[in-house]
Write a structure and sequence with these properties.
single chain; mainly alpha; Protein Binding, DinI Protein, Chain A; 2 domains; two-stranded parallel ribbon; 7 helices
């Protein structure tokens, strides 16, 4: 079972066994996917990451073209028996190692793009948390759930996404 599902089951169990207390609790939810698509800072970060990825893809494509060219040269020299192509073969091996290293460095799990994405998201999610906290405190909410993750049914009157987006815009304009 994934972690989110386990959390959802735990929350559901807590809510079911605490029905008398529920009458006094104030619950709400947000739709984080909607915040990701409507909050400008998320969109800007996504565009910046796409640009970075396209640059990396272009460099990778150039490396692959060079490798293909080396392989063609090697085959031509080998077939024509001009020389054994040993120097080209070593260059091909070096090029293949460089490409693997480049891929790991740029787009691997610990790569540059993944680190940038995590850094950007951490900063943005901190702002979202701050906005959610403000909405919760000002509205007197006991719990605010992420409807994009685990809610199967909810009434739209408990949706606080617009309030959180409003607070996020206020956070940006207060700078």
């Amino acid at each position: 079972m994934n972690n989110t599902f386990k959390k959802g089951i735990l929350i559901l169990a807590i809510l079911c066994f605490s029905a008398p207390v529920m009458a006094q609790m104030k619950l709400g939810y947000i739709q984080s996917e909607r915040i990701r698509t409507e909050f400008d800072e998320f969109k800007e970060a996504e565009a910046q990451l796409q640009l970075e990825y396209r640059k990396v893809q272009f460099e990778f494509d150039q490396m692959m073209l060079r490798l293909d060219s080396l392989k063609q040269d090697y085959e031509v020299k080998r077939l024509m028996a001009l020389d054994k192509g040993e120097s080209i073969r070593r260059e091909i091996e070096n090029s293949e190692r460089q490409i693997q290293s480049y891929q790991a460095e740029k787009v691997g799990p610990q790569g540059e793009i993944m680190r940038k994405q995590a850094q950007m998201e951490y900063s943005i999610l901190g702002k979202v948390k701050k906005a959610v906290d403000k909405v919760a405190i000002e509205g007197g909410f006991d719990f605010i759930f992420d409807g994009s993750v685990s809610l199967l049914y909810f009434k739209s009157k408990y949706d606080l996404t617009d309030d959180v987006l409003y607070e996020l815009k206020n956070l940006d304009s207060s700078k």
